[in-house]
Every structure is written in structure tokens, then in C-alpha cells.
């Protein structure tokens, strides 16, 4: 009987030890998982910051491109105005010349 009781006690003690080990292992695993999650969170934050920086650079570049585009557009419009003005001036000159020619003809006659 004594040995039976001792064996039961021994089994109970072993069972408790196994439970303790299991809990300890689970606790360790949980802590590792939490640590990994923290790292993932930090990594996501770092990536987000990098992306923000990159986008800021892109915005800067886009603004610069837009400015250049506007500049080219204004230049083109100015050149167009100048061309039409030269054309009008040329027409006026030719008209004046024709008028003078007519007057010369009249004087000759």
C-alpha cells in the first residue's frame, strides 16, 4: 500500500513537472511570437516611412515636370502669337505696296 501511494505521489509529481515544462515552453513561445510581431510592426513602419520619402521625391519631381511643361506651353503660345503678328505685319506691308503701285500707275496715266 505504501509503495502504491508513493507511486501515485510520484506520478502526480511527474505530471505536475510535465505541466510546468509545458507551460514554460508555451510561455516562451508566446513571448517569441510577441517579439516577432513587434519586429514585423517595426518593419512595416520602416517601409511606410521609406515609401513616404520616395513619394515625397516623386511629388517634387512631378512638380518640376509640371513647371517645365507650363514653361514649354507658354513658349509655344508666345511663338504662335509672334508668327501671327509677323504674318499680319507682312500683309499690311503688301497692302501698302499695292496701294503705292496703284498710285504710281495713276500718276503715269
Automatic annotation (TrEMBL):
<protein>
    <submittedName>
        <fullName>Uncharacterized protein</fullName>
    </submittedName>
</protein>
<feature type="compositionally biased region" description="Basic and acidic residues">
    <location>
        <begin position="1"/>
        <end position="17"/>
    </location>
</feature>
<feature type="compositionally biased region" description="Basic residues">
    <location>
        <begin position="41"/>
        <end position="51"/>
    </location>
</feature>
<feature type="compositionally biased region" description="Basic and acidic residues">
    <location>
        <begin position="79"/>
        <end position="94"/>
    </location>
</feature>
<feature type="compositionally biased region" description="Basic and acidic residues">
    <location>
        <begin position="25"/>
        <end position="40"/>
    </location>
</feature>
<feature type="region of interest" description="Disordered">
    <location>
        <begin position="1"/>
        <end position="109"/>
    </location>
</feature>
<feature type="compositionally biased region" description="Basic residues">
    <location>
        <begin position="95"/>
        <end position="109"/>
    </location>
</feature>
<feature type="compositionally biased region" description="Basic and acidic residues">
    <location>
        <begin position="52"/>
        <end position="69"/>
    </location>
</feature>
